[in-house]
Amino acid sequence: MESDMYGMRFATALIHGGVHEDGGTGSVNVPIYQTSTYAQENIGGTPKWEYSRTGNPTRAALESLIADLEEGTAGFAFASGLAAETAVLSLFESGDHILLSENVYGGTFRLMDKVFKHFGITFSLADTTNPEAFAAAFTPQTKAILIESPANPLLTVTDIEATAKIAHAHGAMVVVDNTFMTPYLQRPLDLGADIVLHSATKYLGGHSDLVAGLVVVKDAALAERLAFIQNSTGGVLAPFDSFLLIRGIRTLAVRMDRHTENAEKIARHLAAHPAVKKVYYPGLETAQGHDVQKKQAKNGGAMVSFELAPDRDIRKFFPALRVVTLAESLGGVESLVCHPATMTHAAIPKETREAVGITDGLIRLSVGIEDADDLIADIDWAIEGSEGK
């Protein structure tokens, strides 16, 4: 998973990729260009900068950086992950059909079910882990697939390369949400994807202090279409948040190394715990898709989901935590835990959630960079306190 951009390895490219200094002053940080508009010399010209919805130097530096890291043609920065996803879905027309991974993020399901459905764009859920079932889900109207791998929240793994070949054989575009993995651990464009999405709020920002979304595309013509949509719809990332996100990305490698080291240790501990019914973590040898994950990604990532034994009460588990915080989101330096059924995936109907395995007993853990032994002690304490219905 090493990069050869400019002859640099990935950890170096995090700091020196894209636009990493200011040409006018020599500042080692790209400044925050906190401006809405730019002076022009005359009318009818084609200035590089004209209006900050269309382009801003701070945002452009971020967009160049993420394009380098994902090894794409162009990057685009938006005000949130869902704003980024909205821009991508705006590539499609009434009558088009889109396939989604079965256990997709609840916000993605809501966006398709409550917004784009009104524009005549239909969708269905598909088991992207099963090539035969996936291939059978295509219709003549299917124009794209949107994959999460590992998927949120059951961490199911999809073979991106194999799935992309099936989709392309059907004339469909491949969109991969790479939020959980980041380009440090997985590069979907290299595996055949056409578009990569990020909720950059998560690991790329890394500090739970901004909300942002990023898109990277492989094809130059597609980049031109998406640039038009970004400018026309206007859900762009502000200069200050762009600056913060660049700063967060610079430490991605060292943070992800600690995140994933902790996650694997915690996952193995939970797998051996007598009060834990099931653990979902693609880094475990017994996990669904482990071999595929090992082939297409650097490791299992830093998200762990699990279910407690039947004699445990999750309503007692969450309040007992003292270090891990009950909260939405993931990917920050602090460990966060959530209850998908009532939080991140509440927008998905209960029968649909349960059909794909998102039960009311599922717990999703975003493992932070604290001391792993402190996290394990906190989780053990909460599990002990959850005994009895």
Task: Explain the overall architecture.
This protein has 14 helices and twelve strands. The protein has 389 residues and is an alpha/beta fold. It folds into two domains: 5-250, Aspartate Aminotransferase, domain 2 (3-Layer(aba) Sandwich), CATH 3.40.640; 253-385, Aspartate Aminotransferase, domain 1, CATH 3.90.1150.10. Strands 1-7-6-5-4-2-3 form a seven-stranded mixed sheet.
Q: What do the pLDDT scores average to?
A: 95
- Helix content bin: 25-40%
Structural class: alpha/beta
Tell me the name of the CATH homologous superfamily of the largest domain. Answer: Type I PLP-dependent aspartate aminotransferase-like (Major domain)
CA-CA gap between termini: 46 Å
Number of DSSP strands?
12
Strand content: 5-15%
- Rg: 21 Å
Give the oligomeric state. Answer: single chain
Uncertain stretches of 5 or more adjacent residues: none
Number of H- or I-type helical stretches? 14
CATH class term of the largest domain: Alpha Beta
How would you sum up the global shape?
Answer: globular
Q: In the CATH classification, which architecture of the largest domain applies?
A: 3-Layer(aba) Sandwich
Strand order of the largest sheet: 1-7-6-5-4-2-3
Largest sheet: 7 strands, mixed
Order of helices and strands: HHEHEHEHEHEHEEHHHEHEHEEHEH
User: What is the number of independent domains?
Assistant: 2
